[in-house]
Amino acid sequence: MPIGDPGGGNFRYTTEGLPEAVFMATVPCRNIDGALSFYKGLLGMDVLYRKEGEAAVRRNNATLLLKVSDAAGIDTGIFLGVENPYDLHRRLVDEGVVFVKDPTRAPMGVFTSFRDSDGNIIHAIEMKAEIRP
Fold first, then answer.
1. CA separation (Å) from 36 to 2, 27, 56?
2. Residue 22 CA to chain centroid, in angstroms?
3. How high is the pLDDT of residue 105?
4. What does the alpha-carbon distance between residue 92 and residue 97 come to, in Å, rounded to a whole number?
């Protein structure tokens, strides 16, 4: 009998309890003020909360937890969905943001990669992307 089955083993799983989305991702930073300046000021994210050593920011469905850590300066593996990676690239280049990958077509769609104020690599991909072999 499954642990959570009060019906004595007669329950059949379909999609109950399976992941539906990435709710939030953590980005390491050296200090909250610098990270907020980047994510709020340059990426237009709203501050949900701020406390000692961490803050949460959101824009539409993208929520990031900025957390003070010695691990800052990594490839986060985070892909933010954007309308157009070329527009993001142009906007952030004008602000002096360092890009590690200019907009490029890949199997998942057009994406670009840049460094935040702590040197973390953040990726951005077109939201309308379709997987192509």
1. 45, 11, 9
2. 9
3. 93
4. 5
Beta strands in 41-74 (DSSP E): 46-51, 54-59, 62-68
Percentages (nearest 5) of helix, strand, coil residues in the chain: 15, 40, 45
Per the CB < 8 A criterion, the answer to whether 105 and 130 are in contact is: no
pLDDT bracket for residue 1 (50, 70, 90): very low
Q: Which CATH class is domain 25-126?
A: alpha beta
In DSSP terms, which residues pair with 123 in a beta bridge?
Answer: 79, 113
pTM, to two decimals: 0.85
- Taking CA 94 as the corner, what is the angle to CA 130 and CA 69, rounded to the nearest 5 degrees? 75
> How far out from the chain centre does Cα 5 lie?
35
**What is the pLDDT at residue 18?**
86
pLDDT at 81 over 80: yes
Sign of CA dihedral 98, 92, 85, 116: positive
**Domain range list for the chain:** 25-126
Within 10 angstroms of residue 78's Cβ, the number of other Cβ atoms is 16
